[in-house]
Structure formats: structure tokens, C-alpha cells
């Protein structure tokens, strides 16, 4: 594992522009300089203060129990109901008529859901799930597009103490199957189909295929969205409208322990098998709400907030469902793709709902740049006041474009660094307080301990680079990997065991002012359009194809998606290397993992570069994939391999 170096990211560090907060913004900002002072004075008291944003049935007796590190317990002894906090209490406080969700369907249909409506729908769904015999602690898989029922389902689970495992609806049936099996889910909630780029695409067949092989599943609950014909298994499959619509909208929420499991979310690691990241209730919701309030400067009842993520990713969990709803946000939820029916869709939505806070990913910003500044320019974006970015390092050009063409040079941009594992934002500027630099996430939030260290775990000074670590437990931290304690210890805690640091897997640097610049992953995890995909996962998918003998996958720099997947494959003896093979292999990867994992490029090669111990040298393949001079080959078992690969490619294979 070596920190990234010598690539374009180093140019970031020559960035010298700074954007201090405007006086008007600072004047009205939620955050002040006192926040960091309070956190520094008494960290646990600071987090206790943040936990009081929530409504607890009984208060904790201890803020943090770290005696069994790295397994943290936050707000020990406290009890609460997460769904009550996100829904009911706002209705009880007299805000039932406030819009919770402006839902915008891809084909142009829309629904307005108030907090009172949300309470009814979540209560009905909770009654429905209970009627299926599900009890607190059971796992439920949710495999759905961005329809309101997906949010109702998550909250209904939370209300009953069921642990949800949301699986991105773009993943394959095989990916769904392995996640259902790993968590031993009893129920899967899905839709008949989903709208994608203006057309309905079936979704339930993938569930049918997965569930045929998952013994734990007892029922499949199906929302009708596209009106597509579906196969039906009597006794197992149930329509949402048959089961949920007739339920009572009264449901008394039970209180659960602060450490009750709230959800599992699978994310790629360095091996082929995704990790089930486990999050619990009180600490998670505290930090999701705290960060949403300060990082986005959110004002309940005034702002219209829009996070463009999908609920299949952690950003959708923390910044569509839990954080914003705990803070009584009015938000936009959009079902579809940004270019349906045309490339102005996002700006039409911003204009239509007067969106004031907009949170998206650098890959989309770069796509907007490609489509042209004239598109946002034709829309009234004057309602916007805060812009956010997440998922990968944002390059200064994209940051500047975002600021100018979306933010009208007036909106602060918050570049937020965090991970599925951290549960909530960890490193970001505070709008109104922090002077921002284009491309930097600036520094850890008040209450968060993060630093950049060298190989030995020693903190590096200003101008220094190395590994990003988190040196203090935080409320929304993962509580483990589902069913795999050893992997949890090995993956995150073994690297800097002596110091007790959490190893994030990212490289980072401090600039001369001490601002933090994230430099991308230092392990074999790729970041494609903000989605984490492991090289091993794609390699396993490729070698599971009958025609492939061996495969090596690298992430190559891509101007739009951040990284693109490039695969080098050796075919089995006797296999014709015809035109069709590349398409066949790309489709195979899509089937095994999902279309997001399809390699951008597949090169058929006679050999792979390996060290004497048989480890594939991805660094050299990355040089080929990025059209660079191939680097140092002296540690290769056979140093002529790279010539063989390059000459083969030059011949156009
Ligand atoms: C990367 C998404 C630079 C990083 C919330 C991290 C970022 C991984 C940023 C987590 C950012 C996320 N700047 N890199 N602002 N945000 N990353 O689990 O490599 O899908 O480790 O969580 O994305 O991805 P995940």
C-alpha cells in the first residue's frame, strides 16, 4: 500500500485561491467559532449536547464506553425510537402540515408528502411488517428505486427495530442474493420495475432469481411502480397496496436501546466479498443530525434541501433519510437520471421547488461541465445558498465551475469527506466559519479527531502527506462488520493497532496552512462515479467466466467518473479472441455485480506482470491504462512481460 503520488492530484497542492465566508452568511450561520471551542473543551459533553437534538425515551448514563475498543458504545443506557425522531415528533410539535418530501418521479409525476402524511404511511407500513410476523432484530432487505415507499420502508423498519439492508437497485440479482444470505434477511421489499432514462425496466425478476436461492426469505413485498407484468409466487409474494393500504395509520413506537442495530449496508473492500457495515441507533442519528444541521447550515421550515444520492448508498441513508428527517427538513427526492428528459432536469427541479441546499457528487458536476454552462444559466438558481460535494476528491476546476455556474459565486461549497463506515460527515468546512479552498475538505468537524500520519503512525506536519486516520471514536462509527469480527479488526484497526487509530484507507496531505486534501484510496478499492468497487470483486467476476483464465483490474484516471475500470484478461487456451469477447465479458460483469462495475475497457493480454511472490503489480498496469511510460519493473518475476503486454496492445488487440 503506497500513498498516491506523482499524479494530477499533486497539482491540487499548488491551489492557492481561498474563499472566506461572506459577512451576510456568517451573520445567519448555524455554526460559529464557539462550536470547535466547546468540542475541544469537553468532547463527551459536546456530543451529549448534540444528542439532545433528539428525543430520548430515557437518557443515557454514560456518553461513551470505549472499554471494549474497537467496539464502541455511545449513549449507554439511553433509549429512543429512530422513526419517532424522524417523523412523529415533528407532527407532535405542530409541524404536521410542513412538507417533508417533494417527490419528483422520472416520468414527470410528483407527490407532496407532509410530515403528517409521512407519519401515516410509516405507521401503516410498520403495521404491515409486524403483521408478517417480523420482530425487532430481524433483517429486511430493501431493493428499490427512489420511490417514497423506499423511505417509508426504511423508517418502518427503524420503527419496529428491524435492521434494514438496502441494496442498490442497480446491483445484480447475484449481488442481492449474497447480501440477503449474509444478513439472513426474512423479507425483501421491491418494486415491479423502475424508470431509468425514460423507460421502465423490470426489477422483480432479479428478486425472483435471487430469492430462489435464499432460504431465509419468507416474503417478497412488491410496490407497483411501472405496471410491468411480473411473475408471482403465491404465498410468498404480496403487493404493497394489498397489504399496506388497508392498515391502521396508528402505530405506537417502541423505544430501543441506543445501540440497537439500525442498518447494515454492504460496501466493497479489498477482497471479493462485500462487507456488511453495521450501524446502530442513538450515536448514528445524533451525528447524522448534527452534521446535517451545521455542515449544510440547515434551517427547518425555511430551507428546501436536495441530496441527489440514491438510498442504495450511505449518502442516501444519512443525508436523505435520517439526518434531514431528524432535523425536520423539507426536501426534494428525485427518482431518475439527471438527463431525463433532458440535461436541464436538475435545474428545472431547483427552480420548481426553490431548492436552497444542493448536495451532489463531483462526477455529476464534471458531467454538467461537459454538458455546458449554458444549461444551468437558462434557469433561475437564485434560491440556492449552500452547495455540497461528496464521494471522491473534487478537483479545483470542478469546484470553481460549481461555484460560478451553479452557486452564482455566492454559495459556500462544502466538500464533505466521510465513508459508509463513518456513518456521517467527518471532514468538511463549516459554512459561515471556514475559509474554503477549491478542492480541499479543509479539516475535521468539531468533535471529530482526524489526522494525517506516516507509515509509522506519526503525525505529519504542514506540507506533509500520508494516511488519513481517525484518532478518536465518534458517535456514528460502524459497530462492526456483520458476522465478521476478525475482518473488522483486520481491515480498520490492525494497520495502526499500537496507536488505536482507525485506518480509513485514504491518502491525504496537509497544505502549508494545515488544510486537509484527500488524495484517493491507498488500497485496491476503485472509486467510479463516487461508487466504491474493489478490483478483486471485478476480477472474481471476470474469472468466473468460462473463457477467462486470469484477470487483473485497475482504476485508471477518468475525466468524468474520477476513475474508470480497466481490465486485463488472459483467455483460456483455445478461446478465439474475436470482437465479441469484450462485450461478452463486460455483460458478464454487469450480470455478476451490476452495470456500474462494467469495465470501461478490457484488454486481452498474453501475460500479467507479477512479482516473484505472485502478486500482480497493478501499478504497472495502471501505467498502461493511463498511457504512461511504464514505471520500475525490477521487482517483476519476468521483466519482459511488460514489453509483451505493450507490444500486443500496440498491435491493437
Ligand atoms: C471517498 C461515501 C475525497 C474516499 C460517503 C472514501 C472522498 C470513500 C470524499 C468512501 C471527499 C468520499 N473527498 N474522497 N469529499 N468523500 N470520498 O463508503 O475514498 O461510498 O474512503 O462513502 O469515498 O465511499 P463510501
Automatic annotation (TrEMBL):
Mg(2+) binds at residues 543, 545, 548. Residues 90-482 form the AMP-dependent synthetase/ligase domain. InterPro entries: Ac_CoA_lig, ACAS_N, AMP-bd_C, AMP-bd_C_sf, AMP-binding_CS, AMP-dep_synth/lig_dom, ANL_N_sf. PROSITE patterns: AMP_BINDING (PS00455). GO terms for molecular function: ligase activity. Acetylated. Deacetylation by the SIR2-homolog deacetylase activates the enzyme. Pfam families: ACAS_N, AMP-binding, AMP-binding_C. Its EC number is 6.2.1.1. This is Acetyl-coenzyme A synthetase. The lineage of its organism: Bacteria, Bacillati, Actinomycetota, Actinomycetes, Pseudonocardiales.
Amino acid at each position: 500500500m503506497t500513498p498516491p503520488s506523482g499524479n494530477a492530484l499533486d497539482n491540487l497542492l499548488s491551489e492557492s485561491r481561498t474563499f472566506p465566508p461572506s459577512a451576510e452568511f456568517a451573520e445567519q450561520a448555524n455554526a460559529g467559532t464557539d462550536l470547535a471551542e466547546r468540542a475541544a473543551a469537553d468532547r463527551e459533553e459536546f456530543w451529549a449536547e448534540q444528542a439532545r437534538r433528539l428525543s430520548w425515551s430515557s437518557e443515557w448514563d454514560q456518553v461513551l464506553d470505549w472499554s471494549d475498543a474497537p467496539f464502541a458504545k455511545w449513549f449507554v443506557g439511553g433509549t429512543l425510537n429512530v422513526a419517532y425522531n424522524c417523523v412523529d415528533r415533528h407532527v407532535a410539535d405542530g409541524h404536521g402540515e410542513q412538507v417533508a418530501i417533494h417527490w419528483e418521479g422520472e416520468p414527470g409525476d410528483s407527490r407532496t408528502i407532509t410530515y403528517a402524511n409521512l407519519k401515516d404511511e410509516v405507521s401503516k407500513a410498520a403495521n404491515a411488517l409486524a403483521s408478517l410476523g417480523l420482530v425487532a432484530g430481524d433483517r429486511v432487505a430493501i431493493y428499490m428505486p427512489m420511490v417514497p415507499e423506499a423511505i417509508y420502508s426504511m423508517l418502518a423498519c427503524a420503527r419496529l427495530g428491524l435492521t434494514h439492508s438496502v441494496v442498490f437497485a442497480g446491483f445484480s440479482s447475484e449481488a442481492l442474493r449474497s447480501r440477503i444470505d449474509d444478513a439472513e434477511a426474512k423479507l425483501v421489499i421491491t418494486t415491479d420495475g423502475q424508470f431509468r432514462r425514460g423507460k421502465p425496466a423490470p426489477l422483480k425478476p432479479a428478486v425472483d432469481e435471487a430469492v430462489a436461492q435464499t432460504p431465509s426469505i419468507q416474503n417478497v413485498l412488491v410496490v407497483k411502480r411501472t405496471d410491468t407484468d411480473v411473475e408471482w409466487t403465491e404465498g410468498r409474494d404480496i403487493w404493497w397496496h394489498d397489504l399496506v393500504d388497508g392498515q391502521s395509520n396508528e402505530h405506537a413506537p417502541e423505544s430501543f436501546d441506543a445501540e440497537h442495530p439500525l442498518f447494515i449496508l454492504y460496501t466493497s473492500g479489498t477482497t471479493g466479498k462485500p462487507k456488511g457495515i453495521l450501524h446502530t441507533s442513538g450515536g448514528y442519528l445524533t451525528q447524522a443530525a448534527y452534521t446535517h444541521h451545521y455542515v449544510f447550515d440547515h434551517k427547518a421550515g425555511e430551507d428546501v434541501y436536495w441530496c441527489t444520492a440514491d438510498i442504495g448508498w450511505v449518502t442516501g441513508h444519512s443525508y436523505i433519510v435520517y439526518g434531514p428527517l431528524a432535523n425536520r427538513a423539507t426536501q426534494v427526492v428525485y427518482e431518475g437520471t439527471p438527463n431525463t428528459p433532458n440535461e436541464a432536469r436538475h435545474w428545472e427541479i431547483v427552480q420548481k421547488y426553490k431548492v436552497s441546499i444542493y448536495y451532489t457528487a463531483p462526477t455529476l458536476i464534471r458531467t454538467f461541465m461537459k454538458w455546458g454552462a449554458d444549461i444551468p444559466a437558462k434557469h433561475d438558481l437564485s434560491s440556492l445558498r449552500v452547495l455540497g460535494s461528496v464521494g471522491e476528491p473534487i478537483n479545483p476546476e470542478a469546484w470553481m465551475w460549481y461555484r460560478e455556474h451553479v452557486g452564482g459565486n455566492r454559495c459556500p461549497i462544502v466538500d464533505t469527506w466521510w465513508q459508509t463506515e463513518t456513518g456521517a460527515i467527518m471532514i468538511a468546512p463549516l459554512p459561515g466559519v471556514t475559509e474554503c479552498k477549491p478542492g480541499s475538505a479543509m479539516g475535521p468537524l468539531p468533535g471529530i479527531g482526524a489526522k494525517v500520519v506516516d507509515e509509522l503512525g506519526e503525525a505529519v506536519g504542514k506540507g506533509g502527506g500520508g494516511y488519513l486516520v481517525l484518532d478518536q471514536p465518534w458517535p456514528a462509527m460502524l459497530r462492526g462488520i456483520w458476522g465478521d469480527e476478525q475482518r473488522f479488526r483486520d481491515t480498520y484497526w490492525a494497520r495502526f493497532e499500537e496507536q488505536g487509530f482507525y485506518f480509513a484507507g485514504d491518502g491525504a496531505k496537509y497544505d502549508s496552512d494545515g488544510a486537509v486534501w484527500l488524495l484517493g484510496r491507498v488500497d485496491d478499492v476503485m472509486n467510479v462515479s463516487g461508487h466504491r468497487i474493489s478490483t478483486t470483486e471485478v476480477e472474481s467476476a471476470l474469472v468466473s467466466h468460462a473463457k477467462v483464465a486470469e484477470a487483473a483490474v485497475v482504476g485508471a484516471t477518468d475525466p468524468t467518473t474520477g476513475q474508470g475500470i480497466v481490465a486485463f484478461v488472459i483467455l483460456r487456451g483455445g478461446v478465439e479472441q474475436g470482437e465479441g469477447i469484450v462485450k461478452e465479458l463486460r455483460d458478464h460483469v454487469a450480470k455478476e455485480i451490476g452495470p456500474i462495475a462494467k469495465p470501461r475497457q478490457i484488454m486481452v493480454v498474453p501475460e500479467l506482470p507479477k512479482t516473484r511472490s505472485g502478486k500482480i503489480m497493478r501499478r504497472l498496469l495502471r501505467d498502461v491504462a493511463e498511457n504512461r511510460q511504464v514505471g520500475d519493473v525490477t521487482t517483476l518475476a519476468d521483466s519482459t512481460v511488460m514489453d509483451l503486454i505493450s507490444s500486443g496492445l500496440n498491435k491493437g488487440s
